[in-house]
Amino acid sequence: MLLKSKTIKNLIHLIFSIFCLVIIFTPTCHLKADIGITVYPLSYKLILSPGQEWDGTTTIVNPNNFILKVLVEKENIVGGAEGNISLTAEDISQYGLAKWISYDVEEFELQPKQSREFHYKIKIPDNAPPGGHYAAVLFKGKPAEEVTGIGISGRTGTVILVEVTGEIVKKAQISSIQAPKFIDHGPLTVAFKILNEGNSYISPEGKVVVSGIFQKQELAIDSRVIFPGFDRTFAVKWDRKYIFGPLNIAINTYIPNGPAIEPAKVVIWAFPYQEAVLIIVIILLIVWGIKIFKKKFKIVRLEEKPKENDQ
Predict the structure, then answer these.
(1) Which residues pair with 219 in a beta bridge?
(2) pLDDT score recorded for residue 18
(3) Rounded to whole angstroms, how far apart are CA atoms 29 and 213?
(4) Which helix (H) or strand (E) covers residue 198, if one does?
(5) pLDDT value of position 192
(6) Which of 48, 59, 167, 168 has the fewest CB atoms within 10 Å, measured from its CB?
(7) Residue 35 gets which letter from DSSP?
């Protein structure tokens, strides 16, 4: 028994020694961190005519404590559903904008905590097709000198959405509504999709009007970009606990500098049935209690005994 205990103890010492040797002789790995780089503004929305020029500016900030080399790139943007975008270096004749962007500097340095304005120009060709054209001016940073544990930053930049004037088609519709048919308590959330059927990006605005018995609320929607041929979800929330129906929901939206979108309506029933059941139960208990009281206890009226003088 003693021999077995000694063997186990030696085995533990051996494992611990191997573990220590592995730690001591294992090379240290340096994880590379991304470089911080800040740009503003994040986007431009422009309306330009064929043949027109526009001068743009993006400010780049080096928040690091070392010198940063900044590389400049430009790429076209392909719009998608829900406002998602993807970058491509390919020439897109219908919606491309990158080939119309020019700048003189493709690389520069920023001192620690330094900022710089980067200037570029957009020249719309005389024969540019009308409608939306999209691109991004991108900036990628890396240390000017080797810095331990620091890698290369991801690209960040300014998104540029241009509407070239001409035969612009601005048309949209509310393609679907997501709302409950019945709710017992708030908050009430109504979501809907708007489909862009035109040839340029749009940023619809408007409100959702909720009206019912002694209730009315107007909820503004947040303006969001929708690319041609795609839809995007909008949602509003009425943060109220007790709501009584029926509720008439009217979605009224429009395209700025464009037509109104055909309104959409839906009816929602709202009733706090749990509280209603509790109130009914309480009323029934009160009525039942009164009946029991009247049955168990008979109310007798005491008449005053006549006095002897009255006889």
Answers:
(1) 208
(2) 41
(3) 68
(4) none
(5) 97
(6) 167
(7) P
CATH assignment of 38-164? 2.60.40.10
Residues of the chain with pLDDT under 70: 1-34, 93, 146-153, 273-276, 297-311
Cα(114)–Cα(72) distance, rounded to whole angstroms?
17
pTM, whole model, 2 decimals? 0.72
Domain residue ranges in the chain: 38-164, 172-270
pLDDT (0 to 100) of residue 10: 56
CA-based angle 201:205:208, to the nearest 5? 140
Q: What confidence score (pLDDT) does residue 183 get? A: 85
Rounded to whole angstroms, the Cα distance separating 43 from 120 reads 14
d(CA 34, CA 143): 11
Q: Are 182 and 269 in contact (CB under 8 A)?
A: yes
Residue at 255: amino acid letter: I
3-state SS class at 236? strand
- Give me the pLDDT at residue 31, please: 39
